[in-house]
């Protein structure tokens, strides 16, 4: 009997060792890799809304009269094309929460495409097929659009959106967020756990839903060492666009602004470098059909796979069980 107990103790120790090794390997893997969101719009569908958008209530993280830095780590594909628009990551500020959730430009205070292709907000060409760190610093309450131009508004919401305005191709985002005037991250969206579709202020077009993952969009994994994003020193934050957004460039969900045109993402956001022609002029809405599916819906990279820790646990338990059974049979045979 003592021998049997000893055997079980040894088996348990072996199992613990295997489990610890598996968990360590799993932790190392997550440390060496990161996840990112990616989506593709076919060039045949230029003009169609496709976006994801996070609306942030002003009082949750912002304070009046302060500067904030909006940042994103983005990679634009070499399949990107445009017809007077851009592929973007942008910021829109509204003096009304409902307007931010419905893309009502009458309450749009300011906007900026702080990360975009084919050029950045300063007009410099944007590289493709490489990770780039973009950032833009401003006081979102300082108006640059319509009747708010040059005025300071009391904001209720700011959104960050990823999408297309009169453009197509592949866009991948590792992280988007906001830093305070001390450089501390006060808001961040990363994709280690995918996308939370139940988030109350998350907006998206009808083709970005859980059922279309792997077709219209995907969460991919990549090794950090292979794609450390270069720091673009030319992207130093500036308080506001060199020129104010123009009606031709604003985008929102269901209408999407861009550097040359204003629009909303089905309302889809985007921003332009020049100021809107007039207060009465609203961003242009895209009229392209929305029922086709992008030509290239899957990203080039493939998710990395590894043997799961629970697999090692099962193997260890199975090995222990086999050893225990064999020893019990041996002991019984000896007694006979």
Structural write-up:
With 336 residues, the protein is of the alpha+beta class. It is built from four helices and 14 strands. Strands 1, 2, 3, 4, 5, 6, 7, 8, 9 and 10 form a ten-stranded antiparallel beta sheet that branches. A hairpin with a 5-residue loop joins strand 7 and strand 8 (185-189). Helix 1 runs antiparallel to helix 4. The longest helix is centred in the N-terminal third of the chain and has 31 residues, at 2-32. The protein is elongated and about 95 Å long. Mean pLDDT is 76; it is low at 22-29, 231-268 and 270-307.
Topology readout:
Layout: H1 2-32, E1 33-41, E2 51-57, H2 58-61, E3 68-76, E4 81-94, H3 97-102, E5 108-117, E6 132-138, E7 157-179, E8 185-189, E9 202-204, E10 217-223, E11 251-252, E12 255-256, E13 264-265, E14 268-270, H4 309-335
Helix pairs in contact: 1-4
Low-confidence runs of at least 5 consecutive residues:
22-29, 231-268, 270-307
The counted number of beta strands is: 14
Q: What about the largest sheet?
A: 10 strands, antiparallel
Overall 3D shape? elongated
Pattern of helices and strands: HEEHEEHEEEEEEEEEEH
Given the helix and strand composition, which structural class is it?
alpha+beta
Q: Considering DSSP H and I runs of 4 or more, what fraction of the residues is helical?
A: 10-25%
How large is the share of residues in beta strands? Answer: 25-35%
Radius of gyration from CA coordinates: 26 Å
Q: Give the helix tally.
A: 4
Spatial gap, N to C terminus = 15 Å
Q: What number is the mean pLDDT?
A: 76
């Amino acid at each position: 009997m003592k021998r049997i107990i000893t055997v079980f103790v040894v088996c348990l120790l072996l199992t613990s060792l295997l489990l610890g090794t598996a968990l360590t390997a799993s932790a190392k893997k997550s440390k060496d890799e990161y996840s990112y969101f990616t989506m593709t719009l076919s060039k045949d569908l230029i003009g169609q809304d496709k976006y994801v958008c996070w609306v942030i209530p002003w009082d949750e993280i912002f304070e009046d009269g302060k500067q904030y830095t909006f940042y994103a780590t983005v990679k634009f594909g070499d399949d990107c094309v445009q017809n007077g628009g851009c592929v973007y990551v942008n910021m829109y500020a509204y003096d009304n929460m409902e307007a931010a959730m419905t893309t009502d430009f009458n309450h749009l205070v300011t906007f900026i495409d702080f990360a975009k292709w084919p050029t950045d907000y300063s007009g410099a060409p944007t590289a493709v097929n490489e990770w780039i760190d973009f950032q833009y610093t401003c006081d979102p309450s300082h108006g640059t659009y319509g009747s708010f131009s040059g005025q300071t508004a009391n904001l209720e919401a700011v959104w960050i959106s990823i999408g297309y305005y009169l453009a197509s191709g592949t866009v991948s985002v590792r992280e988007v967020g906001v830093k305070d005037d001390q450089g501390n991250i006060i808001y961040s969206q990363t994709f280690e756990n995918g996308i939370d579709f139940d988030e109350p202020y998350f907006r998206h077009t009808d083709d970005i839903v859980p059922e279309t993952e792997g077709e219209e969009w995907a969460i991919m994994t990549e090794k950090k060492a292979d794609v450390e994003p270069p720091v673009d020193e030319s992207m130093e934050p500036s308080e506001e666009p060199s020129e104010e957004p123009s009606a031709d460039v604003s985008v929102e969900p269901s209408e999407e602004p861009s550097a040359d045109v204003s629009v909303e993402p089905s309302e889809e956001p985007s921003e332009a470098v020049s100021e809107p022609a007039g207060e009465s002029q609203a961003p242009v809405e895209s009229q392209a059909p929305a029922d086709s599916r992008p030509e290239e819906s899957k990203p080039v990279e493939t998710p990395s796979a590894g043997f799961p820790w629970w697999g090692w646990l099962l193997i260890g338990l199975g090995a222990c069980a086999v050893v225990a059974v064999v020893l019990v049979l041996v002991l019984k045979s000896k007694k006979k």
